[in-house]
Amino acid sequence: MADEGQQMKTIVGHNIVVFFTFFLIIFTTAVQIFLIQAEIGLMGLFLPPTMLFGSMMVINYWKCVKIDSSSKSVGKPPSVQTDGWRYCPYTGCSGSVPVNSRHCHQCNVCVIQRDHHCHFTANCIGQNTLPFFMVLILSMFGLTLTYCFANIIYITTHETPGTLILTVVAPIQVLWYFLGYVTLSHCLISLNIVISFGALMGSIVLNYHEYNLLFHNKPYLTKSMPIASSGVLKMSKLDRIKEVYGKKWYMFFIDPTHQSAIQKQFGVTKVM
Ligand SMILES: [Zn+2]
Ligand SMILES: [Zn+2]
Predict the structure, then answer these.
(1) What separation in Å is there between the alpha carbon of 100 and the centre of ligand 1?
(2) How far is the CA of 117 from the centre of ligand 1 (A)?
(3) Which range has the worst mean pLDDT, 1-5, 89-93, 116-120, 170-174?
(4) Which ligand sits closest to the CA of 106?
(5) Ligand 1 mean position to 216 CA, how many Å?
(6) Could you tell me if residue 242 is inside a domain?
(7) Ligand 1 mean position to 142 CA, how many Å?
(8) What is the 3-state secondary structure (H, E, C) of the chain?
């Protein structure tokens, strides 16, 4: 029973995190479109990338939340220890798991080709979720870069040096709003500027991490499992992308139901 209560708490916690992240995306997008892009009069320029990257981000975020990245997604483990399987002693598994999986203590389950536990999706990024995570962080980079460009134009055309400091220090803006010194829209715009700049920095770090993992087999941020390949350093970048995501790797940007080569064919990746 204690376990069930704990599980319930975890599920509620996950839902709050996912709801909050969705709220953040919708909030910044609404402020960006209706208060900033409309105000600077450049919607024709900024709205198309906002819609494109925004929808790509939401779709792939949802996939990263929903897809089972655990070792249980590959079916029942064999009852007898065979090649390609090992024993995991932790409570969530206590049985055979694929050798190319690593236990996540937050998910309490082994995750195939575990990259890292993503707190924003409340799920592990591993073999099953990695392609969608890659599209997610690339579209997040595109979206936040678009927002930051629009923000810079807004700041340079609408802010005096005196209000600039207040604009970029969002918590002070919120306080100023409650004290009645600034309008609500000014407060929201200021929050948007800070959130989109922070998200841009975050997406750069994540993209750098995944770039290294993909092309140098060297995880930079987390203790990810390298996606091993015999000749990753000698391979051309395009060949490496094809190896990990399949020949039709570009389909991940177009079709959210697409699956990569390693997803389709369990066990083809070797672990170093
Ligand atoms: Zn495990
Ligand atoms: Zn996890």
Answers:
(1) 11
(2) 14
(3) 1-5
(4) 2
(5) 27
(6) yes
(7) 36
(8) CHHHHHHHHHHHHHHHHHHHHHHHHHHHHHHHHHHHHHHHCCHHHHHHHHHHHHHHHHHHHHHHHHCCCEHHHHCCCCCCCCCCEEEECCCCCCEEEECCEEEECCCCEEEECCCEEECCCCEEECCCCHHHHHHHHHHHHHHHHHHHHHHHHHHHHHCCHHHHHHHHCHHHHHHHHHCCCCCHHHHHHHHHHHHHHHHHHHHHHHHHHHHHHHHHCCCCCCCCCCCECCCCCCCCHHHHHHHHHCCCHHHHHCCCCCCCHHHHCCCCCECC
Q: Domain count of the chain?
A: 1
Q: How far is the CA of 128 from the centre of ligand 2 (A)?
A: 13
More confident residue, 235 or 229: 235
Query: pLDDT-derived band of residue 174, with 50, 70 and 90 as boundaries?
Result: confident
Neighbours of ion ligand 2 (CB under 5 A): 104, 106-107, 117, 124
- Average pLDDT of span 182-196: 88
Residue 28 CA to ligand 2 center (angstroms) comes to 27
Between the CA of 90 and the centroid of ligand 1 the distance, in Å, is: 5
The band of 75, judged by pLDDT with boundaries at 50, 70 and 90, is: confident
202 CA to middle of ligand 2, Å? 19
Residue 1 in domain: no
Identify whether 94 is part of a domain.
no
Tell me: pLDDT of 225 over 80: no
Distance 175 CA to ligand 1 centre (A): 46
Does residue 44 belong to any structural domain of this protein? yes
Cα 32 to ligand 2 centre (Å): 32
Per the structure, the complete domain to which residue 33 belongs is given by 10-69+125-264
Answer whether residue 268 shows pLDDT above 70: no
Work out the pLDDT band at 262, boundaries 50, 70, 90.
low
